[in-house]
């Protein structure tokens, strides 16, 4: 497949984002407002203000509401990912980036004005309420098991259920809630906070880059006006794929940037640090690890670009997004692991972002579908195609 050329406009945007992240955002990586459940809203808002002033806020969505191509977005989001705080500052972070994409594709003009506009402008955060607790046989990697229900009552839907690992729920102003009606899966737009959506607790997880952390949620008789259903009743799984296939890819873009930066830090360390009479880079065990990192970074970049180019044709299927998410997540984790190893004790300390990148990418191997679920999906496709022959 021949990839459409990247426009000069997109390259200029990417250059500006890279400069902003390296020069303005990276110095905040040791900010005390970085907590176990992500950066505080005060820090996030301050960084968004700086991005707004630098004209790099929500850079992948243009002033007229149109998007860069997915191939162009890949370049821009990789640059935003050069710091764990970069996507937060530039408003390209999950779950907001995926929610903005979904609302742009499916939302009515009224929904776009009320719910999408404040997200694009960086004045609000959002949460996507899909995953459910495994101990209740709820929807985790298998959304067909969804237990959250929606029933009509007059001109309102009444929603009840529990959700878990809901990223950014604490502090969010916009929610997209998935629930099951008699027609099937549905999505609902809600203003947050709402007393019917109760945060039971924010989980302590291995990652710490997303504002609000990951929460366990109880939804108790949430009343949503009928006109706040996103799209049509029973079409929720279709809309979920509209969101999730590109969102898996944009995760890959952002974490590729983070792995690139971690490798830069590890390379600088290995070239300066001496052991046994010579720089670490001259020891084959270290030098070969960093050489393999360069190979793997280029390989994953090419795979991301391939998947983005396919997505731009409108033909991206589950298989392409599953292959890319699986391979990129697993490979970036190996890169981050080598960076930690090359830096020794410094690599496991908080003195640089290498340790955080290692943790974040380890979590990436699970969210948006664990590696094993994607491989299982691909194996089913292999069997179907074999049976058809």
- Share of helical residues: 40-55%
Count of distinct strands: 11
N to C succession of SSEs: HEEHHHHHEEEEEEEHEEHHHH
CATH superfamily of the largest domain: Butyryl-CoA Dehydrogenase, subunit A, domain 3
**How is the CATH topology of the largest domain named?**
Butyryl-CoA Dehydrogenase, subunit A, domain 3
Beta percentage is: 15-25%
- Report the biggest beta sheet as strand number plus sense, adding barrel if it closes: 4 strands, antiparallel
CATH architecture of the largest domain: Up-down Bundle
Mean pLDDT across every amino acid position: 95
The number of domains is 3
Unreliable runs, pLDDT <50, ≥5 residues? none
Helix-strand category:
alpha+beta
Please write the CATH class name of the largest domain: Mainly Alpha
Order of strands across the biggest sheet? 4-5-9-8
Radius of gyration: 21 Å
Amino-to-carboxy terminus distance:
25 Å
How many distinct helices?
11
The coarse silhouette is globular
């Amino acid at each position: 497949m021949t990839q459409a050329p990247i426009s000069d406009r997109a390259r200029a945007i990417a250059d500006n984002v890279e400069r902003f992240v390296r020069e303005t955002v990276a110095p905040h990586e040791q900010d005390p407002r970085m907590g176990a459940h992500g950066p505080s809203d005060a820090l996030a808002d301050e960084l968004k203000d700086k991005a707004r002033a630098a004209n790099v806020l929500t850079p992948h969505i243009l002033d007229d509401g149109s998007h860069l191509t997915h191939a162009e977005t890949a370049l821009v989001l990789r640059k935003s990912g050069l710091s764990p705080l970069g996507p937060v500052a530039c408003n390209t972070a999950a779950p907001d980036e995926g929610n903005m994409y979904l609302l742009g594709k499916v939302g009515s003009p009224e929904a776009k004005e009320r719910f999408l506009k404040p997200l694009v402008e960086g004045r609000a955060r959002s949460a996507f309420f899909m995953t459910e607790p495994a101990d209740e046989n709820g929807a985790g990697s298998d959304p067909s098991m969804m237990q959250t229900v929606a029933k009509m009552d007059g001109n309102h839907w009444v929603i009840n259920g529990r959700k878990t690992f809901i990223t950014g729920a604490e502090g969010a102003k916009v929610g997209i809630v998935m629930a099951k009606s008699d027609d099937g899966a549905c999505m609902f737009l809600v203003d947050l906070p709402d007393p019917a959506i109760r945060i039971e607790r924010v989980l302590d997880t291995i990652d710490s880059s997303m504002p609000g952390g990951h929460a366990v949620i109880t939804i108790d008789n949430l009343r949503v006006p009928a006109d706040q259903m996103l799209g049509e009743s029973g079409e929720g799984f279709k809309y979920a794929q509209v969101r999730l296939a590109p969102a898996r890819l944009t995760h890959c873009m952002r974490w590729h940037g983070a792995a690139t930066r971690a490798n830069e830090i590890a390379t600088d360390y290995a070239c300066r640090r001496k052991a046994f009479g010579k720089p670490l880079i001259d020891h084959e065990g270290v030098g070969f690890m960093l050489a393999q990192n360069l190979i793997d970074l280029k390989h994953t970049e090419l795979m991301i670009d391939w998947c983005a180019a396919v997505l731009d044709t409108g033909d991206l299927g589950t298989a392409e997004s599953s292959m890319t998410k699986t391979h990129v997540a697993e490979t970036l984790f190996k890169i981050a692991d080598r960076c930690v190893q090359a830096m020794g004790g410094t690599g496991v300390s908080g003195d640089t972002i290498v340790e955080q990148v290692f943790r974040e990418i380890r979590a990436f191997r699970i969210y948006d579908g664990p590696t094993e679920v994607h491989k299982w999906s691909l194996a089913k496709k292999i069997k179907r195609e074999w049976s058809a022959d």
